[in-house]
Task: structure prediction
Amino acid sequence: MRVNFNRVAAVATALAVWASAATGAVATHTYSKWMASSIMSRHQGIMTGAGSSSEALQSGFTQKAFTALVAQYPNATDVQQYIETSVAAAAPFLSNATYDAMAYPMDRLSNGNALLTLPSANSTASNRAAAKALHQSIMLNHRNIDGGLWYFTYPQWSYLDGMYSLAPFWTLYSTNAVSRSSNSTAELDDMLFQLDLIWQHTYNSSTGLLVHGYDASLTAVWANPITGASPHVWGRSLGWYAMALVDTLELLPSSPCKYKQDVLNKFQTLMPAIIDAVDQQTGGWWQILDEPGKEGNYIESSGSAMFAYALLKGVRLGYLAGGLASNASEVATRAQGYLTDTFVVKETNGTLSYNGTVSVCSLNSTASYEYYVGQPIQYNSVLGSAAYVLASLEVEKLSA
Ligand SMILES: *[C@@H]1O[C@H](CO)[C@@H](O)[C@H](O)[C@H]1NC(C)=O
Ligand SMILES: *[C@@H]1O[C@H](CO)[C@@H](O)[C@H](O)[C@H]1NC(C)=O
Ligand SMILES: *[C@@H]1O[C@H](CO)[C@@H](O)[C@H](O)[C@H]1NC(C)=O
Ligand SMILES: *[C@@H]1O[C@H](CO)[C@@H](O)[C@H](O)[C@H]1NC(C)=O
Ligand SMILES: *[C@@H]1O[C@H](CO)[C@@H](O)[C@H](O)[C@H]1NC(C)=O
Ligand SMILES: *[C@@H]1O[C@H](CO)[C@@H](O)[C@H](O)[C@H]1NC(C)=O
Ligand SMILES: *[C@@H]1O[C@H](CO)[C@@H](O)[C@H](O)[C@H]1NC(C)=O
Ligand SMILES: *[C@@H]1O[C@H](CO)[C@@H](O)[C@H](O)[C@H]1NC(C)=O
Ligand SMILES: *[C@@H]1O[C@H](CO)[C@@H](O)[C@H](O)[C@H]1NC(C)=O
Result:
């Protein structure tokens, strides 16, 4: 393969030149595809039932990142095949709504989009049943006293995290020709209500950012006495919410416009605050956004990739415009470059690893600053590496 070094240099943040020590051969890789093939070599994002309750999210998030990759690189047939394998593995775990609604956090719904959009050849009865059960599980999901969907088993608690899986799936299900029903308008209203309710409880007007979640009963040790809000802005949970907004916007019809307008208002309000919160020195975002530079805090690699993706996709689809769009592109492109330089590890066997991703942070804790910065860092968490695939795809699009 002939390598055009000028072009490689021009898009150095998106392309890597990797010389194999064994063969001396030089190959160019795009980081998105390289990281995706590395995720596949690690067999990540395939449910086995033996993992933690976050298995369903690992599976659904991998499917979403890979779906975006195949849309951008249609000849990546191995990645398409992997999506199908991931969906086929997940479906049996998600086909009993009564059980799933409690056994998995709201994150389970992230598997629904690929279930609905697989090529018809793969739209098996099992896939259709799983999509239907996931939808039914929203209706069975517990609600708090304000009507907000619980994130998981914790009574009355809602997390930003769950919105990433809920809103795009519910929107697709309610608008898709095959699955929409006479109740779809009420369901879209409910979807908007959920995005709204959690915003109202978690928005901090002095930072413009959203905290991790809230307890509608106001009884948790960490709950704000008026709003029930938890105390801190956790990067990854805000990353899920930012991605929820931009991915939902992409799926919402333009008419009636109230849905799109409402979600757009949220996106355009939130993203400038996220740009403001970037660490000027590195270009990444802190694990705890509201305590920049405090001892123990660090630049976290999953939340940072999620913000870079949401910003660049928002610009690409015209949801951010003018000076805000140029700022967003600059900040996000720089962030992806920092992530590549800092957290992407080239293994001697030719795979890429991804470092610096915090493990799960739960509100079933003190939710204190010390708790969040004390959670372990994971090597090759797919919640980080799949977010990096999404961010890299957007950067690669800029130079395509
Ligand atoms: C896929 O397409 C790209 C160009 O878009 C090309 O460089 C690459 O070689 C193709 N890969 C395969 C496996 O055909
Ligand atoms: C769903 O799971 C529950 C709990 O395990 C079980 O009681 C019920 O029979 C299952 N329903 C179906 C339709 O399989
Ligand atoms: C999806 O469909 C294609 C084409 O029919 C087939 O080759 C592939 O094996 C199917 N994948 C799964 C997981 O069933
Ligand atoms: C229609 O959707 C609304 C909003 O989610 C829900 O409250 C209601 O139960 C649904 N009705 C039916 C018949 O499913
Ligand atoms: C909002 O954020 C600021 C800055 O982090 C903090 O001082 C303030 O206590 C927060 N407000 C509430 C209601 O939590
Ligand atoms: C873009 O960033 C510059 C420098 O930080 C700032 O002065 C300007 O207000 C920003 N523009 C918008 C539209 O946010
Ligand atoms: C490549 O090397 C890394 C680091 O040693 C290892 O974790 C991974 O499993 C290896 N992958 C394969 C496909 O051998
Ligand atoms: C991964 O990051 C940790 C610090 O968070 C560091 O100690 C470790 O050396 C890194 N691993 C690699 C392979 O870079
Ligand atoms: C919540 O945390 C407590 C204390 O760590 C633990 O015993 C309990 O099992 C947790 N609850 C759930 C549902 O994970």
Q: What stands out?
A: Residues 322-343 form the longest helix (22 residues).
